[in-house]
């Protein structure tokens, strides 16, 4: 999946097409107008409309806000547009989502599945990348962030941490978070997410 909505050959990414349809379905399921969703998410009506029509591929920030409004993790939302999940998740079948403008690549290593509360996500941030999330998609969810390569700066609420290769930060998520790569090298990390 690419962040710009189109593959290299100029055709729309099928995952982006399904994601656009799912975003529209979620809004319809709640009976919200675009204006109401815009107020709840702090995203402009025109951006929401373009995302639901698949004219743009949502950024990390936009997806984060929509996930929070709909009470889903990003992995849950992305898994809803994939085929039925299998017990063995092969590397070549893991969904990869890219936000090139933010310098962020997200791989759903172990996507959510009915009956399981945990998931594993791999994140990659380019040097200088800075991602801020205003609120958790599911308040009280547990996260374990393990740095695999590089240096990662994380702010959870008012507390900031700098993690090196091999370090792990564990917390319950109630408020804003921020992930930063101070560089000079990119950072690769795993996040284990456990729903309450």
Description:
With 196 residues, this protein is α+β, with helices and mostly antiparallel strands. The protein has helices at 14-30, 34-41, 45-52, 60-70, 74-79, and strands at residues 96-99, 104-110, 118-125, 130-133, 141-149, 152-156, 159-163, 168-173, 177-180, 187-194. The strands form two sheets. Strands 1-2-3-10-5-8 form a six-stranded antiparallel β-sheet, with no helix packed on it. A four-stranded antiparallel β-sheet has the order 4-9-6-7. The protein is globular.
| CATH architecture grouping of the largest domain | Sandwich
In the CATH hierarchy, the third-tier topology of the largest domain is known as: Jelly Rolls
Derived structural class:
alpha+beta
Helix count equals 5
| Low-confidence regions | 1-9
Largest sheet: 6 strands, antiparallel
Mean of all residue-level pLDDT scores:
87
Number of domains: 2
Q: What's the alpha carbon Rg, rounded to whole Å?
A: 16 Å
For the secondary structure, the number of strands is 10
CATH superfamily of the largest domain: Jelly Rolls
- Spatial shape: globular
Order of strands in the sheet with most strands: 1-2-3-10-5-8
**Topology pattern, helix = H, strand = E:** HHHHHEEEEEEEEEE
Percent range for helical residues?
A: 25-40%
Please state the oligomeric state of the protein chains shown. Answer: single chain
Distance between the termini: 29 Å
Strand content: 25-35%
CATH class of the largest domain: Mainly Beta
């Amino acid at each position: 999946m690419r962040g710009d909505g189109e593959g290299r050959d100029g055709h729309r990414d099928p995952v982006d097409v399904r994601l656009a349809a799912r975003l529209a379905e979620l809004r319809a399921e709640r009976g919200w107008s675009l204006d109401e969703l815009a107020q709840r998410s702090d995203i402009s009506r025109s951006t929401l409309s373009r995302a639901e029509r698949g004219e743009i591929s949502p950024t990390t920030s936009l997806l984060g806000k929509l996930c929070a409004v709909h009470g889903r993790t990003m992995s849950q939302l992305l898994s809803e547009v994939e085929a039925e999940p299998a017990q063995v998740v092969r590397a070549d079948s893991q969904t990869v989502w890219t936000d090139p403008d933010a310098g962020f690549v997200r791989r759903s290593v172990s996507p959510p599945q009915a009956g399981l509360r945990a998931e594993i996500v791999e994140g990659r941030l380019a040097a200088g990348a800075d991602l801020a999330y205003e609120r958790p998609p599911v308040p009280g969810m547990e996260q374990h962030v393990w740095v695999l390569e590089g240096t990662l700066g994380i702010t959870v609420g008012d507390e900031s941490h700098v993690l090196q290769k091999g370090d792990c930060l564990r917390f319950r998520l109630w408020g804003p978070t921020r992930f930063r790569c101070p560089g000079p090298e990119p950072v690769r990390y795993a996040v284990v997410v456990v729903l309450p």
